[in-house]
Structure formats: C-alpha cells, structure tokens
Amino acid sequence: MTNVLVVGGGPAGLSAALFTQKNGLETTVFDTDGTWMHKAHLFNYPGIGSQDGSAYMETLRTQVDSFGVEHLQQEVTDVAATDDGFTVTTEEGDHEGSYLVLATGADRDLADALGCAFDGDLVEVDLSMETSVDDAYATGAMVRAEEWQAIISAGDGAAAALNILSKEKGEHYHDFDVPADAAATFGPEE
Ligand SMILES: Cc1cc2nc3c(=O)[nH]c(=O)nc-3n(C[C@H](O)[C@H](O)[C@H](O)COP(=O)(O)OP(=O)(O)OC[C@H]3O[C@@H](n4cnc5c(N)ncnc54)[C@H](O)[C@@H]3O)c2cc1C
C-alpha cells in the first residue's frame, strides 16, 4: 500500500510528492500532463529568473523522480475513502493509499466525488490544505477562485505534505537541510 496518493502532476502535486517521498513516505503521482504550465513562461516564480513553463516542469519532474516517486501517466477516474485510507481508480486498476492529495488544477470533480465540503465552487480546506475528509488534501487551482500562480500551488502542495509528515511522525515536522545534507545526497561541490 502506498503511503501517499497524489492526483495531478503540476506544481502543486509534484511539490507535495517531493516533500513526502524525500522524507520517507512512499508516494505515487498520477498525471495526464495537461498542466497549465505548458502555456506559461515564468517571470514571477521567486528564484527562477525567466524560464519556459514546460522547461520548469521538466526540471521539477527530474527532481521529484530522483527521489524515487512512482510516476504514472494515467487518468484517475474515481477516488473513494476506505476504512484505512483511499482508493484511486484508473483504467489500469485500483491503487490503495493512506493519504490522498488532490492537485488536479481547476478541475474539482474528484473532490466532489469524494464528498469534500465546498464553499461555492471551491473546495474547502484549512491552512494545511486538508479538506473536510480526514487525510484528504486539496491544493492549487482547485481551492482558489482566480489567484492561480505556480508558486502558490507549489506552496499548497508543500503545506499538505508537511501536514501529512507531521501526522506520521507524531510531532510538527519541518524539512530543513544544511550544506552537509546536500553533500551527502549529491556529493561534494566541485
Ligand atoms: C496562459 C497561462 C499563462 C500562465 N502564466 C503563469 C505565470 O507566468 N506565472 C505563474 O505563476 N503562473 C502562470 N500560470 C498559472 C499556472 O500555470 C498555474 O497556476 C499552475 O499550473 C497551477 O498548478 P496546479 O498544480 O494547481 O495545476 P496544473 O498545473 O493545472 O496541474 C494539474 C495537473 O493535474 C492533471 N490532472 C487533472 N485531472 C487529472 C486526473 N483526473 N487524473 C490524473 N491527472 C489529472 C493535469 O493533466 C495537470 O497535469 C499561467 C497559466 C496560463 C493558462
């Protein structure tokens, strides 16, 4: 059973997956690669000077995959709560997981199918992006009316992931690295 099921592989979903997998939770991302980032050119993502949106996604995918995230190019057609987590359904079959992160852009159908509470058209979430369904999170464009920015989606995904990690570790969790961690992970700087 996967620890974390992420539906959507845009900035929100991949950010969530990066944090959970990097910190030891087995994570699967389902994606149909329809991210709006393919239409964007970033000038407003702090730390990224000027970059084509698809190029940014390529870098992000490589970063996430390097930590061992399972990345499935499959459309999720249904999600349901079970006694101990969630089932995600694709044409290829069902997948079980303890936590669910929805990151499907402005498409809110899966949150609706799961029975999440809505505030008008928007999925209702708390500051950690958790929905009214325990252990199910909604992130990015689906929880906002118009404030659609890549950095906000990435932040939402990180907030969801840290909340999941805090639940798993039993205390408030932060993912701080120092230069020695980078050297241990990537080797010494040349
Ligand atoms: C023309 C244009 C220009 C933009 N320019 C900028 C800009 O300059 N700066 C900026 O910050 N933002 C920009 N944006 C907005 C930015 O692209 C979005 O804010 C960002 O992509 C939202 O990220 P997200 O992860 O919430 O959703 P998305 O990036 O939309 O990702 C959602 C992903 O989920 C997948 N998905 C959906 N449903 C399913 C399903 N059922 N099963 C599996 N996968 C599914 C989709 O295929 C997609 O890959 C622009 C958007 C557009 C349209």
UniProtKB/TrEMBL annotation:
Task: Cite the entry's keywords alphabetically.
Answer: Flavoprotein, Oxidoreductase
Q: Which GO terms describe its molecular function?
A: oxidoreductase activity
InterPro entries linked to this entry: FAD/NAD-bd_sf, FAD/NAD-binding_dom, Ferredoxin-NADP_redctase_2
Source organism, top-level taxon: Archaea
Residue ranges occupied by any FAD/NAD(P)-binding domain in the UniProt entry: 3-39, 66-150
**Record bears the keyword Oxidoreductase:** yes
Q: What is this protein called?
A: Thioredoxin reductase
Q: Which gene does this sequence derive from? A: trxB
